[in-house]
């Protein structure tokens, strides 16, 4: 039986419910975190380098910009890859505009805290970011829920951070970037999975910062030359993480673990799961922790965000290609606001069969994140 229960009822609402499981927000500069930092880290952020501490970033740039042009003034002299958008902008241009019932917020630059070499610094920055997020966004806007940013390269500290804030209603999960030093199923991450399992918090693995900082190479072929190559291949880290989780038996050892694969596309997961199921039959003595056909764990524990939804010329090809993923039960709507490839909700839902849409719009996310109401027995 699936560990993600679907017998949920929305709050007393007559209008359609919409849950967006991927909204990006961020600070204007790292200095926004100064009030939440301990004195030594405060000093590092202010005095490091030439203009203060800087995070590593992508060597590729989108040729027309990372953020939707209608959301900011491109002539305003923005210095950051990730343009700062205010809470009022988020409300007016997304939450209100699309009548979003609840939005799950993911980090932009703060995702880099997991791929910097100094793990202790990464842990302190994560804690400061989570406190800033709570005070400045989650407590100010009741339609938002947060994902805890944790130092993946320091699993013991990640576990402490999960236990520090993970019981608060404002936080509904844990964020891990696709870029990492080693795949997330490796036993070195057990403290992180143990803490998430203990608190019943799902983990979102989200494409971000592959090949940057201490993260492994995007592909064995080497570094892409163009952003178009990167954006086509960036889900490769997520495929590696999912296979690692399955082979290491994470869902056996931590049975309340739930994982969302966000911004990795959909179609590639089909081929990788088929191949892993086949290899499991021949190699199961090597991975005894994976006690069932690997794909069976997926239906019980894993969900997929819609964005970016592949768009073949013939829409029926997409439906046929992803049927193996049981999309009616595993897909969750994601906008990726405010990024350039933002997916408007009705545009996304129109591409899917009518019988899937209500689940994708909100029911799957509600059950996965345990959001709206207590689950009926």
Map the helices and strands.
Blueprint: E1 19-25, H1 39-47, H2 87-95, E2 102-107, H3 119-138, E3 144-149, H4 155-165, E4 171-177, H5 190-199, E5 203-206, H6 227-233, H7 236-247, H8 250-253, E6 259-262, H9 267-283, H10 294-301, E7 302-305, H11 315-322, H12 327-330, E8 331-332, H13 345-350, H14 354-369
Word description of this protein:
The protein has 377 residues and is of the alpha/beta class. The chain has one domain (19-369): TIM Barrel. It is 37% helix and 11% strand. The chain has 14 helices and 8 strands. The chain has helices at 39-47, 87-95, 119-138, 155-165, 190-199, 227-233, 236-247, 250-253, 267-283, 294-301, 315-322, 327-330, 345-350, 354-369; strands at residues 19-25, 102-107, 144-149, 171-177, 203-206, 259-262, 302-305, 331-332. The chain has an 8-stranded parallel β-sheet with strand order 1-2-3-4-5-6-7-8, with helices on both faces. Helix 4 runs parallel beside helix 5. The radius of gyration is 20 Å and the shape is globular. The two termini are 14 Å apart.
Shape: globular
CATH class: Alpha Beta
Main β sheet profile: 8 strands, parallel
Low-confidence sequence ranges? 6-14, 373-377
Q: Count the helices. How many?
A: 14
CATH architecture: Alpha-Beta Barrel
Placed side by side, the strands forming the largest sheet appear as: 1-2-3-4-5-6-7-8
Domain tally: 1
CATH-defined fold name: TIM Barrel
Mean pLDDT: 92
User: Structural class, from helix and strand content?
Assistant: alpha/beta
State the gist of this model.
By secondary structure, this protein is an alpha/beta fold.
């Amino acid at each position: 039986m699936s560990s993600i229960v679907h017998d949920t009822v929305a709050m007393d609402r007559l209008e359609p419910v919409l849950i967006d499981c991927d909204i990006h927000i961020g600070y204007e500069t790292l200095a926004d975190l100064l009030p939440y930092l301990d004195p030594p880290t405060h000093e590092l952020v202010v005095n490091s380098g030439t203009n203060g501490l800087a995070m590593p970033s992508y060597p590729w740039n989108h040729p027309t910009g990372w953020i939707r042009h209608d959301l900011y003034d491109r002539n305003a002299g923005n210095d950051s890859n990730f343009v700062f958008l205010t809470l009022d902008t988020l409300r007016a241009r997304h939450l209100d505009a699309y009548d979003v019932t609840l939005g799950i917020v993911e980090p932009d630059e703060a995702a880099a805290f997991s791929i910097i070499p100094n793990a202790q610094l990464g842990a302190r920055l994560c804690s400061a970011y989570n406190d800033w997020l709570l005070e400045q966004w989650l407590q100010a806007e009741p339609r938002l829920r947060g994902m805890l940013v944790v130092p993946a390269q320091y699993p013991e500290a990640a576990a402490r951070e999960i236990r520090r804030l993970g019981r608060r209603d404002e936080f509904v999960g844990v964020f891990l970037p696709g870029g990492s030093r080693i795949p997330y199923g490796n036993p070195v991450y057990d403290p992180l999975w143990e803490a998430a399992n203990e608190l019943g918090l799902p983990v979102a693995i989200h494409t971000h910062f592959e090949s940057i900082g201490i993260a492994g190479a995007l592909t064995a072929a080497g570094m892409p030359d163009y952003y178009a190559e990167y954006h086509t291949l960036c889900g490769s880290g997520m495929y590696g993480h999912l296979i690692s989780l399955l082979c290491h038996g994470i869902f056996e050892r931590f049975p309340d673990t739930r994982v969302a694969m966000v911004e990795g596309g959909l179609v590639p997961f089909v081929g990788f799961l088929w191949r892993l199921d086949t290899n499991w039959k021949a190699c199961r003595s090597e991975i005894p922790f994976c006690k069932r056909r690997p794909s069976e764990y997926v239906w019980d524990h894993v969900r997929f965000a819609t964005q970016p939804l592949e768009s073949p010329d013939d829409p029926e090809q997409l439906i046929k290609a992803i049927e193996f993923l049981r999309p009616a039960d595993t897909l969750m709507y994601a906008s990726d606001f405010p990024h350039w490839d933002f997916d408007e909700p009705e545009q996304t839902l129109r591409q899917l069969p009518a019988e899937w849409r209500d689940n994708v719009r909100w029911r799957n996310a509600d059950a996965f994140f345990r959001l709206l109401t207590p689950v009926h027995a």
